[in-house]
Each structure stands twice: as structure tokens, then as C-alpha cells.
């Protein structure tokens, strides 16, 4: 027979284990209390009996048997809670409240103290015979007489038994309450886990929009729910980004593939007519294919960055050293185009990010600056720390610039302004830079350059800003 779900949960099993350990510890503790209390009661009873025996022996030493007998009669008639028995040397009873000694005859003839625990038979108010626990000691006096002194310890033992029963009852109550608490905790855990399992089941069924409920208790269940929700947010963004990337690639590559096919078809017609150059047609096809691959890689990189939410494999590096490496690649290009290239790099700065992505973004910014700056112009690369603690890569050129109304649009994919229609490119350079900046928690800023140069425009300043690194 299968147990209910509540009794099969881990919290309930842990509760049972805890209660078992508690019951074992409580049993040992209660046994110790019982033994210690019972021992203390016996010790006190023995001390009182010993004092009474010493008092009677003093009376015997002062007046002999007659004085001891009179003392016993007087004390037995009083309210002392003791039991007495005095016998002569032949074992005949002289006086006392006991009819016979509880000490065996063999032990009675030996010298020294003889202690014994025995049952005292009495008749209660209803006429019923009751046996109560008692304890006493017997000694042989110098004249051969034997004296037994005992005491009724029934009330003391009843008190000890009452304490033990109360403790056992308290232990049983604690166990019952612990079981009830275990059931409640198990049900609470089951409710929480059922909610999380429902979320997992929904996600497995394909519903990425479901989320775990946050109770606001700020406990481990809320932390688990928040972690699960964050994971689902990332998964949803990733899946959405991949779907968007697929759609974007299918949409954005349609035009270049169509142009490639059209050029191949036109080249084939010309070659068949004996007018075209096959080698030139193949070279053009390879250039178009390289452009398609470049566009594909750029779109896929942007989609992955946007889906991931942050750049992968981040590490600390010196932005000045990275910029110096990139400037060595673009300085010869600037010389070929007769551009004045300068680099102002602040050393010993530190940022955290993906070095390859940042290098690609900086290369895209420099590539645009070199491409659109007319001959005789200037390009300036800077790396510095802002007063806010952020680190800035900036490239300033003296090209045509970007009008203020187009600066938000120009970072979108495949957007090309009128003054760049004749330049090669796919319109993905600044889009990739913006995606890299966002993936690093930074931003991309576009501003006017140094001003008009040779009637070409106001120039452009592109700043890739990365957050401060502690």
C-alpha cells in the first residue's frame, strides 16, 4: 500500500529522523533524571535513618536497654516517621512498631550495619491492604540486643515516579507535536515544490512564458524561484534571439543572394553569347559570396550577443594595449589614403569583457572612420578614463558625420545613409558595436566631430563606453 505523498517527502523523513534522535536523547536524559532523583531520595532517607540510629545508640549508652526502650516508646507514640524494632540477645521482641525484622536471620547475627529495602504492609482507610516501600538499617548493640530503625519512603518514591511520568508525558507530547509539525512542514514544502514542478512541466511542454511564484518571504524557496525565473528569462531571450536570428538571416541574406544569382545568370548568358569573361565572372561571384558570408557572420554575432544578454568569457585586460594593437593594423591603411592618424592611449587602465568582441567593435569603428574620411583628413583614436570611472574608446574623424536625426537609426542593422551608398558594406558595423557595448553593460555614443573640414562635413565622434571595473 503506497503511503500518501506527504509521508514520502524528504522533510517528513528528516522530521522522523530528528524525532528518533530526540526520543533516544530524551530517553537517556529521563533515565538519568530518574536514577539521579531516586538515588537522591534513597540517600536522604538513609541519612535520616542513620541520624535516628545514632540518637538511639546514644540513649542506649547513657541508660542501657531500659533507657533505649523508654525512648523508643516515647518516639513511637510521637509523630516521627520511623519504624522501630528492639530485640533482646535471644531474638525476642522487646518493643517496636514492627512485628519482625526484614533482615534475614543469617544476616541479623553478623556484626555491623545491615541495610534492607522492604515492603511495609498497611491497611488504608477503605480496609484494603496496601504495600508501601520502606528502607531501614539494623545493628547489634554491645549488650547483644539488636535494634532496627526504618522509614516509609513510599511518598518520596511516589514523587519520583510522578516526576518521571510527567517527563515521559512531556516527551510523548513533544513527539506528537513534532510529527504534526513535520506533516505541516511537509505539506508546505510539497505546495512549494508542486508549484516549481508545475513550472518545469510547463517549460518541458514548450511554454517558456510561465514563471514560478515569488511569495516575498525571502527564504530559500524564493531564492530557488528567483533563480528558476532568471534562468527561464535567459532561456526565453536565447530562444527568441535564435528565432530572430534565423528570421533575420533568412530576410537579410535574401537580397545579396538574389544579387549573386542575378550576376551569375547574367555572366552565364554573356559567356554563352561569347561576350563575357568567365574568369572575371567567377572573381565577382567569389567577392559576392564573401560579402554574403560576412553579412551572415555579423548578423549571427549580433543575434547571439542580444540573446545571451551579456558577453561570454569575460576577463580583465588593458584597453590601452588592445587599442595599440588595433592601431598598428589601421595606421598603414591611413597612410595609403593620406589620412593623419593619431592615437592617445592612457596606460594601465583595466576593463572586464570579452577581448575578441571588444577588438571587433573597435575595428568596426576604425574601419568606418577610415572608409568615410576623405583624403587629407584625420582620424584620432583615444582611450581614457572618464570622471565617472568608465573607460572610453573613442574614434574621431573629419568625415561627413551623421546628422542628429539619423544617429539613433544608423546603429540599426542594414541602415545606410545617403552619403554612404557608394561605399562597400552591409550596414552592420555600428549595429555590431552597439550589440557588443550592450552585452558588456556599456553604451555607444555618437557626437559631432571636430567641425567642418574642406567642406566635407562636421566629422563624427564614436565613443564605445565600458563600465568601471572595481
From TrEMBL:
Catalytic activities: ATP + protein L-histidine = ADP + protein N-phospho-L-histidine
GO function terms (MF aspect): kinase activity
Main subcellular localisation: membrane
Residue ranges of every copy of the HAMP domain listed in the record: 187-240
Residue ranges of the TM segments: 166-185
Subcellular location: Membrane
Domain Histidine kinase span(s) in chain numbering: 248-470
Protein name: histidine kinase
CDD domains (UniProt xref): HAMP, HATPase
Source organism (scientific name): Caulobacter ginsengisoli
Amino acid at each position: 500500500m503506497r503511503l500518501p505523498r506527504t509521508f514520502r517527502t524528504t522533510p517528513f523523513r528528516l522530521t522522523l529522523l530528528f524525532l528518533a534522535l530526540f526520543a533516544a536523547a530524551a530517553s537517556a536524559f529521563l533515565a538519568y533524571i530518574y536514577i539521579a532523583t531516586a538515588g537522591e531520595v534513597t540517600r536522604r532517607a538513609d541519612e535520616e535513618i542513620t541520624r535516628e540510629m545514632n540518637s538511639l545508640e546514644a540513649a542506649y549508652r547513657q541508660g542501657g536497654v531500659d533507657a533505649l526502650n523508654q525512648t523508643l516508646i516515647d518516639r513511637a507514640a510521637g509523630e516521627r516517621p520511623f519504624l522501630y524494632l528492639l530485640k533482646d540477645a535471644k531474638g525476642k521482641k522487646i518493643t517496636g512498631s514492627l512485628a519482625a525484622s526484614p533482615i534475614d536471620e543469617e544476616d541479623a547475627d553478623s556484626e555491623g550495619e545491615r541495610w534492607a529495602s522492604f515492603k511495609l504492609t498497611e491497611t488504608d482507610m477503605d480496609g484494603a491492604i496496601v504495600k508501601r516501600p520502606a528502607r531501614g538499617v539494623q545493628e547489634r548493640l554491645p549488650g547483644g540486643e539488636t535494634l532496627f530503625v526504618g522509614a516509609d519512603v513510599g511518598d518520596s518514591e511516589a514523587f519520583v515516579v510522578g516526576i518521571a511520568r510527567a517527563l515521559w508525558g512531556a516527551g510523548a507530547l513533544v513527539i506528537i507535536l513534532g510529527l504534526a509539525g513535520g506533516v505541516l512542514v511537509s505539506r508546505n514544502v510539497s505546495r512549494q515544490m508542486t508549484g516549481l514542478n508545475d513550472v518545469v512541466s510547463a517549460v518541458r511542454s514548450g511554454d517558456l512564458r510561465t514563471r514560478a511564484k515569488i511569495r516575498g518571504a525571502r527564504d530559500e524557496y524564493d531564492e530557488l524561484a528567483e533563480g528558476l525565473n532568471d534562468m527561464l528569462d535567459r532561456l526565453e531571450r536565447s530562444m527568441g534571439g535564435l528565432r530572430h536570428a534565423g528570421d533575420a538571416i533568412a530576410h537579410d541574406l535574401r537580397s545579396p543572394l538574389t544579387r549573386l544569382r542575378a550576376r551569375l545568370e547574367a555572366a552565364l548568358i554573356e559567356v554563352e553569347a561569347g561576350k563575357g569573361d568567365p574568369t572575371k565572372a567567377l572573381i565577382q561571384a567569389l567577392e559576392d559570396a564573401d560579402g554574403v558570408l560576412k553579412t551572415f557572420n555579423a548578423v549571427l554575432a549580433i543575434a547571439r550577443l542580444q540573446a545571451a544578454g551579456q558577453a561570454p568569457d569575460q576577463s580583465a585586460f588593458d584597453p590601452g594595449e588592445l587599442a595599440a594593437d588595433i592601431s598598428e593594423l589601421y595606421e598603414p591603411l591611413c597612410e595609403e589614403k593620406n589620412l593623419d592618424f593619431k592615437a592617445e592611449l592612457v596606460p594601465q587602465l583595466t576593463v572586464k569583457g570579452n577581448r575578441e568582441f571588444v577588438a571587433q567593435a573597435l575595428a568596426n569603428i576604425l574601419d568606418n572612420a577610415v572608409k568615410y574620411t576623405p583624403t587629407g583628413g584625420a582620424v584620432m583614436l583615444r582611450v581614457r578614463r572618464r570622471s565617472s570611472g568608465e573607460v572610453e574608446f573613442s574614434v574621431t574623424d573629419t568625415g561627413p558625420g551623421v546628422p542628429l536625426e539619423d544617429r539613433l537609426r544608423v546603429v540599426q542593422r542594414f541602415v545606410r545613409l545617403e552619403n554612404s551608398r557608394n561605399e562597400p558594406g552591409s550596414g552592420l558595423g555600428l549595429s555590431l558595436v552597439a550589440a557588443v557595448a550592450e552585452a558588456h553593460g556599456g553604451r555607444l555614443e555618437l557626437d559631432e566631430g571636430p567641425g567642418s573640414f574642406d567642406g566635407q562635413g562636421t566629422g563624427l565622434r564614436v565613443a564605445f563606453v565600458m563600465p568601471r571595473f572595481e
